[in-house]
Design goal:
234 residues; alpha/beta; Rossmann fold
């Protein structure tokens, strides 16, 4: 009888999984969009989750019929302005803003001997982790500035797996955005979706408070090919 397998790593998205800075992103983008005469609301903002800054700006300009109006240097200025607004909002972030279920999950994953990674397209991820007091909990954080592609491209999760020295097929990815779930699945990882509207996740929960390592591990084990072991999903 073969041993029950354990994942080599658990890799987390940041916004909406570890902490909720999505509202900060929305407020910063909304202020910039208003300056350009473009109206965006929270429903539109769903399209921007898990998407990098350049692609988010392109989406907003396309929405406002201004995609062909602004040259690259102007777009760069807009992105800098948005990031400055966002960083101002981040100033009030503290460990109290860590989402429910995350601290015990991080502790349990570490106790199980699994590596822990971060796959966030936010260039401010190191600042966010430091503000939350979580910098030392992660073995590797993918550098968003070094990426060529945003989610749903699988690059960021593949980069995280490479940085951790693990096999994507033996790793778990946790995301709250549809683009992120697509990226995880494209790498052959086991995908965990946080959110009622997500599709195609291997295991979906409504919110982070439902994350529990024994359940997550059991679901992951049940998905592994181990003909001599039968794991019942909980």
């Amino acid at each position: 009888m073969c041993d029950q397998p354990y994942p080599q790593a658990v890799i987390f998205d940041l916004d909406g999984v570890i902490t909720d800075t999505a509202e900060f992103h929305f407020q910063a983008w909304q202020q910039l969009a208003q300056k350009l005469g473009i109206e965006i609301d929270r429903a539109f903002n769903e399209q921007l989750k898990g998407v990098n800054r350049a692609d988010s700006l392109a989406c907003i300009l396309r929405h406002g019929g201004q995609e062909q109006v602004w040259p690259p240097e102007a777009r760069q200025q807009f992105m800098t302005e948005k990031n400055d607004l966002y960083r101002q909002l981040l100033a009030n972030l503290t460990p109290a803003d860590i989402l429910p279920g995350i601290l015990p999950l991080l502790a349990a994953v570490r106790a199980a001997g699994c590596r822990i990674g971060l796959a966030s397209v936010s260039e401010n991820a190191p600042q966010v982790l430091a503000s939350l007091g979580l910098s030392d909990r992660f073995d590797f954080c993918a550098d968003a500035r070094a990426l060529s592609h945003s989610k749903p491209h699988p690059e960021i999760f593949l980069t995280a797996c490479q940085g951790l020295g693990v096999d994507p097929r033996q790793s778990i990815g946790i995301e709250d955005a549809q683009a992120g779930i697509t990226a995880i699945n494209a790498n052959g990882m086991y995908s965990v979706g946080i959110g009622a509207t997500l599709t195609e996740a291997d295991y979906r929960l409504n919110h982070t408070g439902e994350l529990a390592w024994p359940d997550l591990l059991a679901h992951w084990q049940a998905a592994q090919v181990c003909p001599d072991t039968l794991i019942t999903r909980s």
